[in-house]
Amino acid sequence: MLLSFCGAAGTVTGSCYWMQTERCQFLVDCGMFQGSKTLKALNYGAFPFDPAKIDFVLLTHAHIDHSGLIPKLVKHGFRGPIFATEGTFDLLTYMLPDSAYIQESEVERLNRRNVQRGRAAVEPIYTGEDVDAALKAFSNVDYETWREVGDGVRARFWNAGHILGAASIEVEIATGQRSPRVSRLLFSGDIGPEHKLFHPDPEAPENFDYLCCEATYGGRKRSDASPEKRRHILGQEVAAALKRGGNLLIPAFAVERTQELLLDLSVLFDSGALPKVPVFLDSPLAIKATKVFLKNADQLEDTARVPDLFRRPNIRFTESVEESKMIGRFSGGAVIIAGSGMCDAGRIRHHLKQNLWRGDATVLLVGYQAPGTLGALLSQGVSAVKIQGEDVRVKATIRRIDVYSGHADGDQLLAWLQARLPVKGAIFLTHGEEDALNALRDGLAATGVPAERIVIPQLDDVVDLSAGESKVQFRPMPHRLPQESLRGPDWHNDLAAFSLTLRERLEQAADDKARGVILRRVIRALEGREER
Ligand SMILES: [Zn+2]
User: In angstroms, what is the span from residue 61 Cα to ligand 1's centroid?
Assistant: First the structure.
């Protein structure tokens, strides 16, 4: 029985586990790689397995870094069922077509440039047609109910408290022809925090042979954000932004974060803590995701106490482009929620272009900003940015809060792991940056789990699980990328940082003569000549 870490290993995003048992092959998640260009190039390359030989897929949740390559899997010959909860499927009916649309338009842009540079055209990773075929392959599962999913394999989904429909997946595999026994595995998926809006705290059974656990916020301690405290902090930020006089822009992820904000704003409006200013939800995907939340409202926590969930006379959903353009008439006093959450795509870029140069405007960042994204640049306090080919000065106030999170922090991850013990074989830590992985490993070792049983695999590592529980055996296998190229930013990020520094130095220089001196120095350095 082999387990391959085809994603979410080491510092790599894009969750994908490939299991080969004596009787079948299956995947847990089939996520899209996100991050540096080097990493994203993997999305265009071949899978390390033959999609036609995969019998079925178990999907933990709808986030694109867990589900985004499923249409590609189908495009390349996968014909089996995909098991997921109803909430996950409902979200994917909007998220996967949106992902296909992004692929197709990105490739179209890239190909325009490729023609200019005399390079060959590239194909999109997948298209809307591939998405349609993939959505037909889904089979809904209920939480906490065993399901025969393949030859000698059964699975049970547990609430992971992360986003609508998210699950940790328990898998039992019949192994050994001569002396039949069952191997028990648990795949954590992404684990949500305690007190998460909409969801009960994560749960799962105990006593496994092997466990794969995410480490996104390993070692990080977040201040306790009770619902009241979180709402209070949001209310203060909105009030301060309104006082500045301009618009408040909130870049937000379409799924979960947008609905959390809408609910918290509703409560603040209802209680009179905030004046009923116009709020625009300007994201077609977020509007669709909000409808999925309304459809599944009976399964969500905290929704019963808030009447007319997400609906308030002053909250407007602007789906069409015409409606979206109308928002431009507001030069102040409006709250605009739009995607993407990291400002690197979507309608938020249009609003940023219209508002960033205004000294009375505010941008409130409420989610994770990956290095190199426009959102990260803004949070670093740059004085100018490029949006849709135009230079835009940043005069707006940029604020950042971290009370909204879909992930358990370090202590909560550790508590979740401890509640799953004993684990007879190994605990594999995945899906995190190097510091987070190491901190979670050390924390776990400090609770008494033997260090040799805690393993941090790298991308494309393969372990043999049939060798017995005493020792984790790695199998030599080809790796798609050398390990050093996977550590954090790549040269594209370095180039972006260099251009930015150069630009800032030029702007700060006293006059054009001084700017000429700086540029000549850089050119000399590039040519390797000593400066006199
Ligand atoms: Zn997730």
Answer: 7
Distance between Cα 447 and ligand 1 center (Å)? 27
Tell me the per-residue pLDDT of 410-424, one tens digit each, with 9 for 90 and over. Answer: 999 999 999 999 999
Relative orientation angle of helices 410-418 and 434-446, to the nearest 10 degrees: 50
pLDDT(35) > 80: no
- The predicted structure's pLDDT at residue 23: 92
Q: Is the pLDDT confidence value at 227 over 90?
A: no
Cα–Cα distance measured from residue 220 to residue 218, given in angstroms and rounded to the nearest whole number: 6
Predicted local confidence at residue 255, as pLDDT: 92
Ligand 1 center to residue 63 CA distance, Å? Answer: 5
Q: How much distance in Å is there from the Cα of 154 to the middle of ligand 1?
A: 23
Q: 258: CA distance to ligand 1 center in Å?
A: 15
Report the C-alpha gap between 452 and 449 in whole angstroms: 9
CA of 74 to the centre of ligand 1 (A): 22
Does the pLDDT of residue 151 top 90, yes or no?
Answer: yes
Strand 279-281's sheet: what is its strand order?
315-317, 279-281, 335-338, 248-251, 362-365, 397-400
Rounded to whole angstroms, the Cα distance separating 516 from 409 reads 49
Output the six-digit token pair for 224: 């306790």
Centre of ligand 1 from the C-alpha of residue 193, in Å: 12
Contact criterion met (CB below 8 Å) for 122 and 111: yes
Q: What is the pLDDT of residue 308?
A: 82
**Tokens of residue 476, six digits:** 């030599």
CA angle 286, 291, 294 (to 5 degrees): 125
C-alpha–C-alpha distance, residues 418 and 244, integer Å: 47
Rounded to the nearest whole angstrom, what is the distance from the C-alpha of residue 530 to the centroid of ligand 1?
Answer: 51
Q: How far is the CA of 187 from the centre of ligand 1 (A)?
A: 13
Say if residue 403's pLDDT is above 70: yes
* pLDDT > 80? residue 241: yes
Beta bridge partners of 168: 158
The stretch 361-390 carries a mean pLDDT of 88
